[in-house]
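Homework-ish question, so no full write-ups if that breaks the rules, but can someone show me the predicted structure for this set?
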Amino acid sequence: MATHDFAAQASHAHEAPQGFIRKWVFSLDHKVIGLQYYFLALAAVFVGMFLSLLMRIHLIWPGAALPILGEIKPETYLTLVTMHGTIMVFFVLTTAPQGGFGNYFLPIQIGAPDMAFPVLNMLSFWTTLLGFIVMIAAFFVAGGAPLHGWTGYAPLSALQSAGPGEGLGADLWIISIAIFCIGALMGALNFITTTLDMRAKGMTMMRMPLTVWAWFVTAILGLLAFGVLLSAGILLLMDRNLGTSFFVPLGTINGQLTGHKGGSPLLWQHLFWFFGHPEVYIAILPAMGMCSQLLSVFSRKPIFGYKAMVYAILAIGFLGFMVWGHHMFMSGMSPYTAFAFSVMTMAIGVPSAIKTFNWLGTLMRGKIRFSSPMLFAIGFVSLFVSGGISGPFLAQPVLDIPLHDTYFVPGHFHLIMGVASIFGIFAATYYWFPKMFGRMMNESMARWHFWFSLIGTYAIFMPMHYLGMAGMPRRYSQMTEVAYLHDLIPLQKFITYAAFITIAGQLIFLVNLFWSMFKGPKASDNPWEATTLEWITTTPPPHDNFGGHTPVVHNGPYEYSVPGAPRDYVMQNDPEIKPAH
Amino acid sequence: MASMTTTAAIADAGISRGEDGRPDYGTRLRRARLGLLVALTPILMLFVSFTSAYVVRQGLPTLDPRTNNLIRDWIPVALPRLLLLNTFVLLVSSLSMELARRQLQSQVAHANSSPVAGDTLASKIRMPWLAATLVLGFAFLFGQWTAWQQLAANGFYVATTPSSSFVYLLTGAHAAHLLGGVLALIVAGIASLLHRSLKTRSIVVDVTAWYWHFMAVLWIYIFCLMKFVR
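A: Not a homework solution, just the prediction itself:
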């Protein structure tokens, strides 16, 4: 029987609130804030998914009159592209893995009673929610939402008269992103301070679960990247509303001089992608941490190469800031610059491959339990490899030039950044649901959901690579009238049908989530027999996580199948295990 | 089961627990300072980003629509001499801020050695340095506002020339951040009026002081950028 000792440490800075408003709305509890982030992302993902469905419908039936919405015009299609991308990147892929699960489990996994600054934590959620409301408001103002894409390239995004939606809608879009940046920065500040300063006794950096490492490095990336996006947003707002010319060169719209001159659209691209590329890792790193965690738990083996995994996360984060130029190979940059960006980009393949091989090494000869979280973790590895393998293609300027602005690129980034991250979110949901809600999710519904999602996403995004290689340009709202694209339309139809089925599959998840929340069988404190600290506390955890005490950590996070141990896992707060020699 | 024993109550000696159940003063101060250090990073990145835009924009030629020639439209702004005075005011405010910080720190140290005497000492001294910093902070902001008026009077508006756009942008962004420091000082003042604990006030003032010094250094950097990279 393991004995447990606790540091006689102070625990919580605030008492458990009693009223509904303080407990569930303006809560200071990182767990409630995590759930708030999670449900915000859940709402956002359905908005984003609905927009993508409209796009898919328009692509293959361009003249179709939809109920309520009517016919989708070409400019509306661009609006859908813009808002789908923006909502998914910011309010889903950045919000759920980091704001949702990070907030909920980072403090528990390091043995802390809460985040370092609970009030700031609450503010960061409400700021993010405000950003989402402002973003959605862009749909309903005169002219509608902007059509400049999630990358907001100037001068299209910088001129009020550049198109429908570029008036108030575009201003709201920029303001929403600026608000989001501030919320994300407050969150990152909390994550970093908490990780550095609030670890329980014995929880050295090299005993932190890889999920914590991933959230920590993600927070650092956010800290460095969001300030730059904020600066770009401020300059863009000034160009739009104060007549400055940071991004707008001399030019005319409908024969009229715009009044701007001398600005550089490329300056926007540099500032945007300096943020935009690290943002990709902000979306994927937490999923990587999640995957590492689950492969170890469900293979009943220590993670293969823990230190290598940590250094790989750090290397990916570091290199992520050196490669933004690979989004701009078409901008006329010097071939030498392009070469440098290309080499740096392909260098990211090295730590990525280290991670992939370590995941496979973890699976090798494991006593694998194919529970639903594990299925999604394996699905993540699959998508990460499939999406990642096209990265080195696009990283080379000579290949990027023909492939740029074709469907190859959406195929690539949806697999690796979009769906892979989403699989990380699903894996995390199935894995931590028992801890968060005290009940188990329905396993057979989860399996149906997994197969719908895995086969569905491959059916949607794999053909896009072929469309791209065949030369089909992205962002075009209509291709039915273009002769050379005619033979590709059946493939587009296939993608739309696959999207219908995949989205229908997501309803299984939704039903399972809410049904299990109230009707699922009661969960034990440690249903997966995992070792990290969230599993030593009650289900769901008390307000201060460990019931007034701070655990003391003696072991690493992945002690499975330890020779000589009484059972096949050793909790992090169990007495220290001695090497068996 | 491991999960069951964890809820077993073990007496909490409360070694590092301060008043009202919070972590002790040293922990809170360290955590607040670390948080501030982290928070300064994105502010630094914001101004690094502005600087890179500044340098890039300065080197760009533009097309003159009348002559179809490439020309430079970067006209250096004659910075108002008032900015020198403002710089001086900000540096003095940084000094008084530091004195305020040290004063509160010593009060806390005093209170720790003899709690009763410390409390009376705290109530006796009405923090003149903090008030002085607040006044100087407002004076700086007012000075910057006046400098804007002078710029406009000389014909340099936000959109007149790219260099004037940057002057307004950099001074405006800096002023907005300094205003955050001023608000923190007001919070510290209100905390004092509400007789909040000396330690809480001391922590607020401590991190505000470091923030304030950062703003002073940042201002000198911005001023040099506008003055010498033109």
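Now go work out the reasoning yourself. Hint: Residues 6-249+261-551 of chain A form a domain with the Cytochrome C Oxidase; Chain A fold (CATH 1.20.210.10).
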